[in-house]
Amino acid sequence: MAVPSHQVLCSGRSTRRVKMERKFLGVIVVFVGLTSTLLPQSQREVRGPIRVSPDHRYFVDSEGKPFFWLGDTAWPLFAEYPKTEAEAYLQNRATKGFTVIQGVLAWGKGTGFESKYPIANAAGDKPWLNDNPATPNDAYFRHVDYLVEFARQRGLVLAMLPTWGYYVNDVQVLTRENARSYGRWLGQRYKTATNIVWINGGDRIATGFEEVYRELAHGLREGDGGSHLITYHPCGSRSSAQYFHTDDWLDFNMIETWTDWPQIYPAIIADSVLAPRKPVVLGEGAYENGPEYPLGPITPLLVRRQAWWSFMAGGFHTYGQNQMWRMEPGWESTFDTPGAGHVTMMRKILEGLPWWELTPDQGVFAGGVGSERTLNTAMRSPKGNLVLVYLSSQCAVFLHLDKIATKQVRVTLINPSTGEKRQAGIFRTGNLNGKTFPDGQAEHFSTPGHWEDAVILMEEVDEVGK
Prior knowledge:
Elements (H helix, E strand, L loop, with lengths): L13 E4 L11 E2 L20 E2 L6 E2 L5 E2 L2 E4 L9 H14 L3 E7 L31 H15 L4 E7 L2 H4 L9 H11 L6 E6 L8 H15 L5 E4 L4 E2 L1 H4 L8 E4 L7 H9 L7 E5 L15 H13 L3 E4 L2 H5 L11 H14 L7 E2 L4 E3 L9 E4 L5 E6 L4 E4 L8 E7 L6 E8 L13 E5 L7 E7 L6
Parallel strand pairs: 1-22, 6-7, 6-14, 7-8, 8-9, 9-10, 12-13, 13-14
Antiparallel strand pairs: 2-21, 3-4, 4-5, 11-12, 15-17, 16-19, 17-18, 18-23, 19-22, 20-21, 20-23
Helix pairs in contact: 1-2, 4-5, 8-10
């Protein structure tokens, strides 16, 4: 997030050329509807609390089933959204297919706009009596209780920040002396909630204040007995791993890239290989329609790139809309912006696959991998029976079909913004009769001319190939 100047800134060879846009006649086209129902998670009560998977790469619900983190950003949810608007927002996000909502309990308008103490909610209640974190205000938290239950009934997890980092780092209202008691009180109050995740921090570096954040985390643990996951939200171009990766209370890592959105993929890759292994979430990237980014306004295409890069790196994504989190005039009309539909379309595409088995594999590319703002990415299943590729722009690539460990492969092109599917055909792979492609031989694919980006799905198939 933007900060005022007085604050620290955190700152080709081929055996067959196949152009996917050719030969529209005879191509099967399928649409995945934007309004399709997502039965695994959306619009049902959360089976939680969510946990970290046994291999420490993703999340599972209380039944051990994979839980797809697709977050949205509503920092002012508890403090500034009036009750009816909060209900409408949560219902909209559940219907669209979001699974996690990030919001702040003790909120003061956000980085660069903070009031000295957390602001009151729409009913006039502040989170702390006498602005003292040691004395939480029950009236304020009764409203929080209501929203927690409202969200649970709609299949939403609330990822709650106890405070914005401003009240630790800048004005030091939350200190080593009162952080643990505040955390303990919160942990006890929401101990039995099944749809809670805690986010420590709040858009700040932890350096110099590590012990305050640790006290807060230990208080949460004491209060809820370890019932809920905890992470840490740093400021831009930072990761929680830089401060707390080996702390027992940090269950998964969270990254903020803010203006450095081209660094999403390498940042998540870097955290995912750390020991001990922990899941990684992009907690804050560049907001849709945000005007202040050096690389230009954040268009729906750039929203999709951020979301797909997060997943293709082995992590998870949190979306955000600029006018909505800032509560600018007319913010209520931004619930249905294109980016929100496109990131939930990503989930709809992936929910039809064993997404939790996929791991990054850039070795799929024989050429055309791209870099930075136009990076193309690939994932592969451990058995080699599925490969997923994201083309982030209008481009051509060469792909090693022998990455599929079967004799034949069906290739499908998917439009990430609409869900439209085009069946490209069935191809023999380099594993035919146990042989592999000679070095340098691969299939050529490209983004259709009227698409901005594309997903390529390569799956094993038993049919006779062409």
